[in-house]
Amino acid sequence: MKVSLQPYNPEWPDDFARLRDKLAAALGDLAVRIDHIGSTSIPGIGAKDCIDIQVSIATLRRRDDLTAALERIGFTKQPYGSDHEPPGWSGDAAEWSKMVFTPPDDERLCNVHVREVGRANRRYALLFRDYLRATPHAVTAWFEMKRRLGEQYPDDSMTYGYVKDAATDVLMLAAERWAEERGWEP
User: Fold this and answer.
1) DSSP H helical segments within the chain, as ranges?
2) What pLDDT sits at residue 1?
């Protein structure tokens, strides 16, 4: 798949809100919270034109109910079972478990990441978003890294993703420091 970064689109928050409402109606009380995450959730930053959504749930043990609810509105479960573990992680691998769903062909492009409340990967996604929203110079540097990476690997989204994961881990070191200084909580 081709890596194509777009300038920030002021319609992304509205696109998310429409998708959030559709997901909330389908999931009912299965969803504890639904958040706009990833680069499209950060005002002013360019990104791939794909809305990342995090659905927080109480437990992944209800995955059959969750899958059925999302399949009823045309979403398809993808084969991803976990996020990558950051270097130095020494805890339970289950902290990075998730489910991913993609929309039907007639829906706006998005990735729906389903993660458990209290898990490390849920916190990671929210901290990434909130840190960049609060730190304009980090936004500039982050977009420049992604732009250069996209130029280097325009036809290799897998390599783009692997390198971006490693860069995200470095960014998150600063984000963790920021969170501690401010008492940030998800």
Assistant:
1) 12-27, 63-72, 120-134, 136-152, 157-182
2) 65
What tens digit of pLDDT does each residue of 13-22 get?
A: 999 999 999 9
The DSSP 8-state label assigned to residue 96 in this structure reads G
How many Å apart are CA 90 and CA 96, to the nearest integer? 12
**Rounded Cα–Cα distance for residues 186 and 117 (Å):** 10
Tell me the two tokens of residue 103. 């929309």
**How many Å apart are CA 57 and CA 115, to the nearest integer?**
6
On average, the pLDDT of the chain sits at: 94
Query: Following CA atoms 6, 175, 120, 170 in sequence, which dihedral angle do they give, to the nearest 10 degrees?
Result: 70
**Closest to 173 (Cα-Cα) out of 142, 129, 117, 128:** 128
Question: For 135-140, what is the mean pLDDT?
Answer: 93
Q: Which residues are 161's β-sheet partners?
A: none
Kindly report, residue by residue over 141-165, the tens digit of the pLDDT: 999 999 999 899 888 888 988 899 9
- pTM over 0.90, yes/no: yes
CA–CA separation, 62 and 64 (whole Å): 6
Three-class SS of residue 111? strand
Contacts with 48 (C-beta within 8 Å, 6 or more apart), sequence order? 3, 4, 5, 6, 39
